[in-house]
TrEMBL record:
SUPFAM superfamilies: ARM repeat, Leukotriene A4 hydrolase N-terminal domain, Metalloproteases ('zincins'), catalytic domain. It comes from Gallus gallus (Chicken). This is Aminopeptidase B. Its EC number is 3.4.11.6. It is found in: Secreted. Transmembrane segments: none annotated. The gene is RNPEP. The active site is at E311 (proton acceptor), Y399 (proton donor). GO terms for cellular component: extracellular region.
Length: 636
């Protein structure tokens, strides 16, 4: 389809897929140096192999960042760009860094003459970088092992601008390779299909499939690995590796196999998992070949292994078929939520999956209650105006409303097997490409001509156009009633705990020992909704269920902390503090700071005290969001 990827991405200086150049390959050649404290440095070069696709431009415009210093730029002779090109090879290019947005700059390289469409160009940019929002330099105290520093990059959504100059738009995909020299005693890993360790502690990586820049990821630290399946290893700091191996041995392969059965071949070769230091801001980041995840997933009892299903699902949705702009992020996340729940249904059954989906729906409800349903971010196609940081548009809508829309498409088809086959065809049709919602929906109607004939895209109230462009609650909700058998006892138990004068006999008669994570989460969400509970109830609940109040499972800890705060239960404030000290995941950290800041004087004091102690270990984005919540903006 000619329309594929033809979307202008306002978040990039390069113009997204409307750019005059396409990137064919990126090569990074860098030396990593750690500093005694604070940010270290990356020094080296980025080499970009470009193809001119439109005439009329005598400059190459790249996305970069003020933290990245360009030392020189050269146009290299075509074809001759080997690994060893000399410093002086090729032709020097004039370059200029111009302001672009709060989150980055535009790097202009002047070409000696206007290239013809189809012409290949190779440019090399010598640069160094250190501090920058995409680079997280942790000193040893911020790691789990507490012995050596650690570096990781996070490119999503536009943060790799401070890692290397390039086309930082999801509209453009390329293969990449990298050569990284790291200090002795450190290991480097990247999102690449092959890697090799050479002399001088140099690591060489190749990604043989085209990927968007936000999926290029690097981690350097004292990390080791252990096999957990025929194509999977876990990576972690030495002190975590045993726990990681125990928790994930054998389970990843099962999820991958179900994914392949449903959505087609897993093309990325290996599926490894890297457990990050505690400050990692995300639950997981689906970097191809090596997912980066929060150490919160090491619950000790395999109770959170299903979280990995989400990241595995991105292997098809997001990583193979990618949204061309961040304004249509639901193409990544809505399809992934649907795929995750398909795999989960196959592995755990529909009751448990519907229960987990009900938790997701509750998060969407919470989000829309906070922002108001009519908020412009509460539609699936968000208009990201020039200058707006795509990261600031991040919310629950593309995930859960996106899930509802994909579920609606499945409902229109009416047959799970046929819809699964469609998903497989969709992946096959668009793999290694970046697409728009129009591409996806056009293909859906083409694949099901009967539905097209019936005019399903314009059913009153359920128009595809309304799904995409109208904010608000989803006009269709998938049936989650199979989850009732697990929700009902949780609802009833929450009812008992919310009563004045507790009926302990009835409460004690409910056996929760076999409840799995999401049934407990569902129960705690109900308790939170009913909070504040009558005086004394939270104390007794805490004593009754150490499984909750002393949980190691992060999903349970989050809920328990929320309950503690909503009920002003000061004796357990220390748990809120301990949880926020132990990890820095955005989805856990922000709701707790919001709850503290909206609470009592004591809760506000707890917020300030905790933030001043943990700020240095938080990811910069999370730190800034917390500052906003606490009204500390601009007080650096
Ligand atoms: Zn995701």
């Amino acid at each position: 389809m000619a329309a594929v990827g033809a979307a202008r991405d306002a978040a990039t200086a390069t113009g997204g897929s409307a750019a005059p150049f396409a990137l064919r390959h990126l090569h990074l050649s860098l030396r990593v140096g750690f500093a005694a404290a604070g940010a270290g440095r990356l020094r080296g070069a980025a080499r970009l192999e470009l193809r001119c696709v439109r005439s009329g431009s005598r400059e190459v415009v790249l996305d970069a960042h003020p933290a990245l210093s360009v030392l020189g730029a050269r146009l290299l002779p075509p074809g001759g760009a080997g690994e060893r090109e000399g410093e002086g090879e090729g032709q020097e290019l004039r370059f200029e860094s111009r302001p672009f947005a709060s989150y980055g700059t535009a790097l202009h390289l002047a070409l000696p003459e206007e290239p013809r469409p189809g012409e290949l160009l190779v440019v090399r940019i010598d640069y160094e970088t250190g501090e920058g929002p995409g680079m997280s330099w942790l000193d040893s105290s911020q790691t789990a092992q507490k012995e050596k520093p650690f570096l990781y990059t996070s490119g999503f959504p536009v943060l790799n601008r401070s890692f290397f100059p390039g086309f930082h738009t999801p509209a453009m995909k390329s293969t990449y390779s990298a050569q990284l020299q790291v200090p002795e005693g450190f290991t480097a890993v990247m999102s690449a299909t092959t890697w090799e360790k050479q002399k001088d502690n140099t690591f060489v990586f190749k990604m043989e499939h085209p990927i968007p820049s936000y999926l290029i990821a690097l981690a350097v630290g004292d990390i080791v690995s252990a096999e957990v399946g025929p194509r999977s290893r876990v990576w972690a700091e030495p002190c975590l590796i045993e726990a990681a191996k125990k928790e994930y041995d054998g389970v990843i392969e099962e999820f991958l196999a179900v994914g392949e059965k449903l959505f087609g071949p897993y093309v990325w070769g290996r599926y490894d998992v890297l457990f990050m230091p505690p400050s990692f801001p995300f639950g997981g980041m689906e970097n191809p070949c090596i997912t980066f995840v929060t150490p919160c997933l090491l619950a000790g009892d395999r109770s959170l292994v299903d979280v990995i299903i989400h990241e595995i699902s991105h292997s098809w949705f997001g990583n193979l078929v990618t949204n061309a702009t961040w304004g249509e992020f639901w193409l990544n996340e809505g399809f992934t939520m649907y795929a995750q729940r398909r795999i989960s249904t196959e592995v755990y059954g529909s009751a448990y999956t519907c229960l987990e989906a009900a938790t997701g729906r509750a998060l969407l409800r919470q989000h829309m209650d906070t922002t108001g349903e009519e908020h412009p971010l509460n539609k699936l196609r968000v208009v990201i105006e020039p200058g707006v940081n795509p990261d600031d548009t991040y919310n629950e809508t593309p995930y859960e409303k996106g899930f509802c829309f994909v579920s609606y498409l499945a409902h229109l088809v009416g047959d799970q097997g046929k819809f699964d086959a469609f998903l497989q065809a969709y992946v096959e049709q668009f793999k290694f490409q970046s697409i728009t919602a129009d591409d996806a929906l056009g293909f859906f109607l083409e694949y099901f001509p009967d539905l097209k004939q019936q005019g399903v895209e314009s059913r009153p109230g359920l128009e595809f156009d309304r799904w995409l462009n109208t904010p608000g609650w989803p006009p269709f909700l998938p049936d989650l009633s199979p989850g009732q058998q697990l929700m009902k006892p949780a609802d009833e138990l929450a009812e008992l705990w919310a009563a004045d004068g507790l009926n302990m006999e009835e409460i004690e008669a409910v056996d929760i020992s076999a409840w799995k994570t999401y049934q407990m989460v569902y129960f705690l969400d109900r308790i939170l909704q009913k909070s504040p509970l009558p005086e004394g109830n939270v104390e007794r609940l805490s004593a009754m269920y150490p499984k909750v109040s002393k949980a190691q499972n992060a999903e349970l800890r989050l809920r328990w902390c929320q309950i503690v705060l909503r009920n002003n239960h000061e004796p357990e404030y220390s748990k809120v503090k301990a949880f926020l000290h132990s990890q820095g995941k955005q989805k856990y950290t922000l709701p707790l700071y919001r709850a503290m800041w909206g609470g009592s004087e004591a809760a506000r004091a707890l917020a300030m005290e905790t933030f001043s102690a943990t700020a240095p270990q938080l990811h910069i984005n999370v730190r800034n969001y917390v500052k906003k919540i606490l009204g500390l903006e601009g007080s650096d």
